[in-house]
Amino acid sequence: MDCCHQPGLLPLEQAKALLNENVKVITKTEMVGLDSALNRVLAADLISPLNIPPFDNSAMDGYALCVSHLPANQQLPLSEKVFAGDVNKHQLKSKHCVRIMTGAPLPCGADAVEMQENTSVDGSLITFKQPISIGNNIRKMGEDITQGQIVISANTLLNSSHIGLLASLGFDQIAVQTRLKVALMSTGDELIAPGNPLSHGQIYDSNRFAIKAMLERLPVEVLDFGLIPDQHSLIKQAFEQADQQADIVICSGGVSVGEADYTKLVLDELGEIGFWKVAMKPGKPFAFGQLKESYFIGLPGNPVSAYITFYKLALLVIAKASAWNYQAPPQISAQTTTALKKRPGRLDFQRGIVSTDAQGQLQVSPTGNQGSAIFSSLSQANCFIVLEQERGKVMAGEWVKIELFASPMI
Ligand code: AMP
Ligand code: MG
Question: Which ligand is nearest to the CA of 191?
Answer without folding.
Answer: 1
